[in-house]
Specification:
Length: about 70
């Protein structure tokens, strides 16, 4: 029997989504680090990508389920 992911499953929690950003450390070197996504327009493209990926995962789980 195939297990179907529930839509309220915490694995699909959008609060865990992150985006790499450039930051300057104490020595003046610029590094890329992962930060939580902001809710503004600047992270809109990444929000779109995360949403599309979540939709694909849900559709794959539904197609794998038997009626």
């Amino acid at each position: 029997m195939t297990e179907v992911q529930n839509l309220q499953d915490p694995r699909g929690n959008p609060d865990n989504a992150a985006k790499p950003r450039w930051v300057t450390n104490d020595t003046g070197r610029r590094d890329r680090r992962w930060f939580p996504m902001r809710k503004g327009v600047i992270d809109l493209w990444r929000t779109y990508q995360v949403g599309i990926a979540a939709n694909h995962r849900n559709l794959d789980a539904l197609t794998a389920a038997r009626p």
